[in-house]
Amino acid sequence: MNETIVCAVGNVATQPVYRELASGPSARFRLAVTARYWDREKNAWTDGHTNFFTVWANRQLAANVATSLSVGEPVIVQGRLKVRTETREGQQGWTSADIDAVAIGHDLSRGTAAFRRSVRTEQPGAPGMPGTGAAQQPEPNWETPAPDTAAEAAAVAEVAGAEAEREPVAVT
């Protein structure tokens, strides 16, 4: 459970790439995160260093990323940070910072968005899931059912009457 959870605010730097894999849908894109600071000498905001992250999304999040995000859009990404270092031919050490996304959304401080609920596209053969051919279970009835018999109705009325007859307790 020792994971580094990050929240990054930036812009979509590359068009999301969507793939159907054996383990389910996957999408990735690059996120540009630029630090901004107040420059007292210029009396203005100045852009600092830009960090780039590869953002990975899986399952339903991947499908939503592919249909919702475009290059240049401001987004907020929350997920697990993974830093990898590799040695490649002809290069020194190569380091990449990836975010395994849990949630991604448009940054509403910089624009507006219209939310549309998506239809779930789960793995084929999952029991009870839409689009799988499996029988769907109806929504449960959360209301308390009415008594089926006269005996049950009398028992409910008796309990209600007993509670009404109780004397109030004085609190001092």
What would you note in describing this structure?
- The chain is built from two helices and six strands; from the N terminus they run ββββαββα.
- With 172 residues, it is an alpha+beta fold.
- It has a five-stranded mixed barrel with strand order 1-3-4-6-5.
- It has helices at 59-68, 150-165; strands at residues 5-12, 17-21, 24-39, 44-58, 74-87, 93-106.
- A hairpin with a 5-residue loop joins β5 (74-87) and β6 (93-106).
- The chain has a domain at 5-106: Nucleic acid-binding proteins (OB fold (Dihydrolipoamide Acetyltransferase, E2P)).
- Residues 150-162 have a biased composition (Low complexity).
- Residues 163-172 have a biased composition (Basic and acidic residues).
- InterPro entries: NA-bd_OB-fold, Primosome_PriB/ssb, ssDNA-bd.
- This is Single-stranded DNA-binding protein.
- Keywords: DNA-binding.
Average pLDDT works out at 79
DSSP strand count: 6
What is the string of SSEs from the N terminus onward? EEEEHEEH
Number of helical elements: 2
- Name the CATH class of the domain at 5-106: Mainly Beta
Query: What's the architecture of the domain at 5-106 in CATH terms?
Result: Beta Barrel
If you consult CATH, what is the topology of the domain at 5-106? OB fold (Dihydrolipoamide Acetyltransferase, E2P)
**Strand residue percentage:** 35-45%
Biggest sheet record: 5 strands, mixed, barrel
Gyration radius from CA atoms, angstroms: 27 Å
Main-sheet strand order equals 1-3-4-6-5
- First-residue to last-residue Cα separation: 50 Å
The CATH superfamily of the domain at 5-106 turns out to be Nucleic acid-binding proteins
Helical coverage, percent range:
10-25%
Q: What is the 3D shape?
A: extended
pLDDT under 50 segments (min length 5)?
A: 125-135
Protein structure class: alpha+beta
Protein name: Single-stranded DNA-binding protein
Organism: Streptomyces galbus
Keywords: DNA-binding
GO molecular function, one term: single-stranded DNA binding
